[in-house]
Amino acid sequence: MKPAIKLTDVGKDFGGTGGKPKRVAVRRVSFSVYPGEVLCIVGKSGCGKSTLVNMMLGLETPSRGSITIDSKPNSGHHRPVAAVFQTDRLLPWRTVVDNAALGLEAAGVSKRQRHDAARPWLERVGLETWGGHYPHELSGGMRQRVSICRAFVLQPEVLILDEAFGHLDEVTAQQLRQDCLKIIAETNTAVIMVTHNIAEALATGHRVLVLGKPAEIIKEFELKAPGPGERKVYPALRDEIFDLIEKQSEYTA
Ligand SMILES: Nc1ncnc2c1ncn2[C@@H]1O[C@H](COP(=O)(O)OP(=O)(O)OP(=O)(O)O)[C@@H](O)[C@H]1O
Ligand SMILES: [Mg+2]
Fold first, then answer.
1. Which among 34, 40, 12 has a CA at the least distance from the CA of 161?
2. Which of 12, 23, 250 most suits a substitution to test ligand 1, by most atoms within 8 Å of the C-beta?
3. Could you tell me what percent of the chain has a pLDDT over 70?
4. Which stretch of DSSP H or E encloses residue 175?
5. Nearest CA to ligand 1 atom 25
6. Any domain includes 169
7. DSSP β-bridge partners for residue 209
8. Domain tally for the chain?
């Protein structure tokens, strides 16, 4: 099986021009994620996680190495990599259904087709009656459901969850995570979950990568458990990962 996404020796520097010192944001990272697999990435604040995410989304260009995405030809409007971020990033002047279908607009899809594509996803997350409402009428958890829909509407091969459940209360986060994992399994999507929550990584991932600072993989854990959602958190592993992350020094350029 081919990986959905493969990073080979990816690095990123900032600065180095206009008298600004060069800062290494990502030192060297290589990994592959396969369809249906959930890879969790944890690391200290400022270690380069968001920079990695931006490179995978094509928003930043790597200074070194390569990123390969196995983009399958698909019926029409799909994007190979989609992301859900910590804040929902919904447009307040657009209805729920128009927000969910936002990514299709850039692809030139008609309004009717956009709505037809978004509605089943809204239904899937229990928001079928909310399509005509505006984001300010929704709770934080409901808004995050809309941004999850917005990602799945694009039928991505790779879904990046960048602290996507981080600001929700524990019960809502747990529910949303479970719903998301069900969809991921059904759609065979490759998932990269960036999280500061070690327990979340251990409860959700098939694998956990621990990053040093600047980003490089300092340890990889393969989790042998019945399946996502059914696991208990492993206290010893959690402590081990915590120690690994804590030991990473503050970076000075
Ligand atoms: N556009 C940029 N220009 C210059 N430096 C940047 C830029 N984006 C990020 N950096 C630097 O790269 C390093 C990594 O930042 P990044 O945002 O990727 O960290 P992070 O792991 O996502 O942190 P956090 O967990 O706090 O979100 C930091 O030193 C940051 O200052
Ligand atoms: Mg970040």
1. 40
2. 23
3. 92
4. helix 170-187
5. 45
6. no
7. 41, 220
8. 1
